[in-house]
Design goal:
The structure holds 2 protein chains of 2 kinds.
Chain A (H helix, E strand, L loop, with lengths): L1 E7 L6 H15 L3 E8 L2 E3 L4 H6 L2 E6 L14 E4 L1 H6 L1 H9 L1
Parallel strand pairs in A: 1-2, 1-4, 4-5
Antiparallel strand pairs in A: 2-3
Chain B lengths: L1 H35 L2 E2 L2 E2 L5 H30 L4 H13 L3 H20 L10 H39 L3 H17 L4 H15 L4 H23 L6 H15 L7 H6 L1 H21 L3 E2 L12 E2 L1 H37 L1
Antiparallel strand pairs in B: 1-2, 3-4
Helix pairs in contact in B: 1-2, 1-7, 2-3, 2-4, 3-4, 3-5, 4-5, 6-7, 6-8, 6-11, 7-8, 8-9, 8-11, 8-12, 11-12
Classes of the chains: A alpha/beta, B mainly alpha.
Chain lengths: 99, 348
Amino acid sequence: MKVVAVTACPTGIAHTYMAAARLEKVGKSLGFDIKVETQGAMGIENKLTERDISQAEIAIFAVDIAVEERERFNGVKVIQVPLQDALKDPHSIFAKIQS
Amino acid sequence: MPELLKNLRQHLLTGVSYAIPFIACGGILIAFAIAFAPMTPTGPDFSQAPRLKLIFDIGSAAFSLMLPVLAGYIAYSIGGKPALVPGFLGGYFSDQVKAGFLGAILAGLLAGYVVELLKKIPVSKHFRPIMPILVIPILSGAFIGVVMLKVLGTPIALLMSNANSALRAMGTGNGIVLALILGSMIAFDMGGPINKTAFFFGAAMIREGNYQIMGACAAAIGTPPLGMGLATLLQKRLWSSEEREAGLAGIAMGLIGITEGAIPFAAADPIRVIPSIMLGSAVAAVIAMVGKVGDHAPHGGPVVLFVVDHRFAYLLAIVTGTVVTAVSINLLKARSRRLADAREEKAA
């Protein structure tokens, strides 16, 4: 299953990237095809393309702040969780997707 | 209700995330200029130092822009692009009437929700395109201007100036209590929303010219990962090889003021780790507060030493907090290890 994700925290220097790495690692180990965009203090990095988003079955927003360029995700199923969830318990996020 | 609060928090943090770099730029440039200018009883004297004056002016400009950016992006988080106009205006007025960051936060929230309401007005199809480019910016901008300049601005400004003078006149006892709370908050969720609340309070006070709140926060910010790192070095047998590695990474992160370095430990053993790091950070914050440490940058850890006042007290605060954290976690861990061994013996 193809999944896209966005991570963002207020300061955007540590949590954002830790959560992205965690989602990527756990997602891949569970057999998901996952791409994670980070919206940190440097702005949008590893940006999801239109194609990434249209091919994805679901988008995960692991964010504590508003997602930038949110309109890109119109028409995609989105689940939004606090960023802490992606750090502490990423497995439950993927379990939610599969159910 | 929890949903509403969660959304509210997200909007506030969005604004904060855009405002922090402005505080960093303004705070550090201003501190730099003042540090090298001759000091007089009425403040720094720039008459003989045009270059320092220039730096000071640039920093001040960053500070003036910080409130509009804060309010603007709080509004943006709620109402999207059309909310930027009333948000920026509201923050600008908040600066004009001296309502500070409280005024800017309120203006941003009001601006965002007003725009959300205006969006809901039913209009005919031909009329719709002019809503976001004409009607909403003009109506919401006029609304927020009237509210900030004529209604809410002055009472908030009064509140802010009272709060500021209360903070400034605060005795040692209250200062210690405040530092205890701030330090514990900084460590509690290691970079999460509670940490950011304390952090932003400190950062916002920099703009108000009170550097000690941030000083206490800054001392507390570095100690959790530093303390965990020190703990793994002090008693290697208590820690696995992965944990010792995370400890070294923690020391590096602690030095550059990233509290998140303690997360791997706290995730593995929250019941013992979180109280230990809270204790260490609270101790660090109290020592910094008592030592009158001031921090001109919205960041913490040893890395900001250059822009800190009373550097010796700052270092003392960090070192003491780090040692307290390391000793507490190792005591707790050794105790649980002994209990576990005793249980095994009994079972055997």
